[in-house]
Amino acid sequence: MYWTDWEEDDVNDSRGRIEKAWMDGSHRQTFISSNMLWPNGLTIDPSSSTLYWCDAYYDHIEKIYLNGTRRT
């Protein structure tokens, strides 16, 4: 499973990330954490093994292969 998270604080301002884990909650890890602030709207295209999301702060849509390559 994949989900988004972001936090705001006085020191680092904002930080966003997309995380993933197995369905039982084990093997949790950060999938993407660079160049994003307010990620949301995740969807997976299983036919191309691609994850899409919106960043509400930067006002754009991005994608990445589920193997972690070719982020655009």
Summarize the structure.
The chain is mostly beta strands and 72 residues long. Helices cover 0% and strands 54% of the residues. The two termini are 21 Å apart.
Structure, described:
- The protein is mainly β and 72 residues long.
- 0% of the residues lie in helices and 54% in strands.
- The protein contains no helices and six strands.
- It has a three-stranded antiparallel sheet, with no helix packed on it. A three-stranded antiparallel sheet has the order 4-5-6, with no helix packed on it.
- Strand 1 and strand 2 form a beta hairpin.
- It is globular.
- The two termini are 21 Å apart.
Labels describing this entry:
72 residues, 3-stranded antiparallel beta sheet, mainly beta, 54% strand
* Strand order in space, largest sheet: 1-2-3
Strand proportion, as a percent range, falls in: over 45%
What global shape is seen? Answer: globular
What level of helicity do the residues show? under 10%
Mean pLDDT: 93
Largest sheet: 3 strands, antiparallel
**N-to-C terminal Cα separation, in Å?**
21 Å
* Extended strand count: 6
**Class derived from helix and strand content:** mainly beta
Rg (C-alpha, Å): 12 Å
| Number of H- or I-type helical stretches | 0
Order of helices and strands: EEEEEE
Which parts are unreliable, with pLDDT below 50 for 5 consecutive residues or more?
Answer: none
What are the SSEs and their pairings?
Elements: E1 2-9, E2 13-20, E3 29-32, E4 39-45, E5 50-55, E6 60-65
